[in-house]
Amino acid sequence: MFEGFSFRGGAEALARIAGMFTTVVLGWYALKRYIAIMQVAERYARRSICARCKAYGAFRLLRERPPTGARCRCGNEWTID
Ligand SMILES: [Zn+2]
Predict the structure, then answer these.
(1) Beta-carbon neighbour count of residue 38 at 10 Å?
(2) Ligand 1 mean position to 40 CA, how many Å?
(3) What does the alpha-carbon distance between residue 69 and residue 66 come to, in Å, rounded to a whole number?
(4) Which residues fall inside 5 Å of ion ligand 1, going by CB?
(5) pLDDT tens for each residue of 22-66
(6) Would the pTM count as exceeding 0.70?
(7) Which residues contact 45 (CB under 8 A, 6 or more apart)?
(8) Tally of CB atoms within 10 A around 47
(9) Tell me, what's the pLDDT at 3?
């Protein structure tokens, strides 16, 4: 995997280290962003159950921007924040 890697290359080795560092930073940022998006999705999933009829996901959104309102087919309304 690291057969071609050497610290004797001078500028080339420095460029490789900079590339690896950049890759690690971008990977860390992408992972943190993915986890944040999954937490929002989990929170929305928990709030997608109607308190009156217990239907899951059987609602229409009343607003697109948070706090998002929801109306179930049974007529119950609640806020998904
Ligand atoms: Zn309902």
Answers:
(1) 10
(2) 22
(3) 8
(4) 50, 52-53, 55, 72, 74, 76
(5) 999 999 999 999 999 999 999 989 999 999 999 999 999 998 888
(6) no
(7) none
(8) 15
(9) 65
